[in-house]
Design brief:
By secondary structure, the protein is of the alpha/beta class. It has 12 helices and 12 strands. Strands 1, 2, 3, 4, 5, 6, 7, 9, 11 and 12 form a 10-stranded mixed beta sheet that branches. The longest helix is centred in the last third of the chain and has 21 residues. It is globular and about 50 Å long.
Length: 294
């Protein structure tokens, strides 16, 4: 079964954590796609992991990097693994076995854990104006386990059982090549953030399934692969998803909601967090949806 799964890891200045990532997948066909690192990541990969195929390219974003990696592999499945994540035990074999048992599963996501072993909540819902309102206006705090008030972050989801889901956080995704050949790869207009949301939405629209299973575990540092920055790119990704899949009118409503909620947040929060919200609000105020996505 190991021959059925190829591993794709996209790196960008990942020298502080990629070694543990690659150690965890030794023995599997592995491709590292480096998106223009300047910290010596490619050299480390060549020296420490001579069996790994290394592809160097300009920064094409997460989706573009993963597309390059998938094109270079031939397994029935691809495990797309963030450079700041590592596989626990035989998680790859477990994911492949689960996918074999669920032939309509295009994507299977494992349990994500924090380094201390605690659960990292990875189940997501597709963005909508209401779901964004529950997040950005803190309405989910009223009922964090409710689907009505916290569907955006999978409120109430039982991580102890396997289940079909709308979307998953993309730190570790096992993807069926047959489904990719039908639906297509990542949309590279999403530079970073929401690219997996769009992709999984397209799989579901084509009749495939997206699954979570707790039977396999991957540890994820969280934020390390992009340094915890790029808040504006996060906002842009949400708007791009809505404009593409729900229409420009929905994206325009979301822009106004996000703009005013971030302005309010900037008033209440100080320091780095307040500055981040202010930057996001200024981005959203700088043009309409078409201008922000161009």
């Amino acid at each position: 079964m190991a021959d059925d799964v190829s591993v794709v890891v996209v790196t960008w200045n990942a020298i502080g954590h990629v070694e543990r990532c690659l150690e965890s997948v030794r023995g599997h066909d592995t491709v590292v796609v480096d998106n223009g690192s300047s910290d010596g990541t490619p050299g480390l990969v060549r020296e420490r992991f001579p069996d790994v195929r290394l592809i160097e390219q300009g920064n094409a974003g997460m989706g573009g990097g993963n597309n390059t990696g998938m094109r270079a592999t031939g397994g029935r499945y691809c495990l797309l693994l963030n450079s700041d994540a590592w596989v626990v035990g035989d998680a790859i074999e477990r994911l492949a076995a689960f996918a074999d048992a669920h032939p309509r599963a295009a994507v299977v996501g494992p349990r994500l854990s924090n380094p201390d072993g605690s659960l990292q909540r990875s189940v997501r819902g597709d963005p909508s104006v209401w779901r964004l309102a529950t997040e950005y206006l803190f309405l989910r705090k009223l009922a964090p386990r409710s689907q009505a008030f916290n569907a955006f972050y999978g409120g109430g989801f039982d991580y102890r059982a396997s289940a079909q889901v709308e979307s998953l956080f993309g730190a570790a995704l096992l993807v069926r090549r047959e489904a990719v050949e039908q639906v297509g790869m990542f949309d590279e207009s999403f530079f970073m953030f929401s690219e997996e949301t769009d992709w999984l939405y397209r799989f579901r629209q084509a009749g495939w399934e997206v699954w979570f299973t707790p039977d396999a575990e991957v540890v994820h540092l969280g934020g390390a692969s992009h340094g915890g920055r790029l808040y504006v790119e996060n906002l842009r990704g949400i708007l791009r998803f809505l404009a593409k899949n729900k229409g420009r009118a929905e994206a325009a409503r979301a822009r106004l909601l996000l703009l005013w909620s971030l302005r309010l947040r900037a008033l209440f929060f100080r320091g780095e967090r307040g500055a981040m919200y202010d930057e996001g609000a200024r981005f959203l105020a700088s043009g309409d949806v078409q201008a922000l996505l161009s």
